[in-house]
Design goal:
two-stranded antiparallel sheet; globular; 4 strands; 9 helices; 2 domains
């Protein structure tokens, strides 16, 4: 994709393909996930994987049997940790779950936990300071797409901009040593109407700043 300039029709076609995948995943994995026999939705937890992280999955046998659901054999419940909180569907999906009367749902998330570890191991105090004082993903988006941090900030906009989400992807890709070509590819996968897709200078600028 690095040397290919897409026409408006081609970019729109790819955008529709990505949107179709997103909609099908949302419907199949979340909206049509079968509840347990008592009507409640549950998940299975893996406390610690080989990577040290936790994970969730549907309640597959032998925990729960498969059930016939909409003419298909499906596992009960859903993988709670995969429910996105981003974009225009994240909050809608999460709103399906209603706590019992007198109870609340509590969402706890560390601030840039993995990225901070990378910066700490690299003795990169400047980047650690960025995480404390800035919206790092919005700032990264500004390096790639132009503009200022505030143009993509979740606090300023009140929602998760797709450009900020691309900035988040680019930030983590940079931590893994991604070059300018990978940076542009990641941008392309998140924002198909990005006006800078054919501009390798943007990718190099991003890598230099990161």
């Amino acid at each position: 994709m690095n040397n290919v300039k897409l026409s408006t029709v081609q970019a729109r076609a790819i955008e529709l393909v990505l949107e179709d995948r997103r909609v099908k995943k949302t419907i199949g994995n979340y909206l049509l996930s079968p509840p347990d026999f008592d009507g409640r939705t549950r998940t299975s937890y893996f406390i610690c994987l080989d990577t040290g992280r936790s994970a969730t999955t549907q309640q597959e046998p032998p925990i729960r049997p498969y059930v016939k659901y909409l003419k298909k054999e499906k596992a009960l419940g859903m993988a709670f940790q995969t429910i996105t909180k981003h974009g225009d569907i994240g909050q809608d999906i999460r709103s399906m779950f209603i706590p019992d009367e007198g109870e609340i749902f509590l969402s706890i998330d560390s601030s840039q936990a993995e990225a901070r570890v990378v910066a700490k191991l690299a003795d990169d105090e400047e980047t650690l300071e960025i995480y404390d004082k800035h919206d790092a993903h919005a700032l990264t988006a500004s390096w790639f797409f132009g503009g200022n941090e505030s143009d993509y900030s979740k606090k300023v906009l009140g929602y998760e901009s797709p450009y900020r989400f691309a900035g988040k992807t680019l930030r983590h890709a940079g931590n893994l040593g991604a070059g300018s070509t990978s940076a542009i590819g990641n941008c392309f996968s998140k924002i198909t109407h990005c006006p800078f897709l054919d501009n390798r200078f943007r990718g190099r600028t991003y890598c230099q700043r990161l």
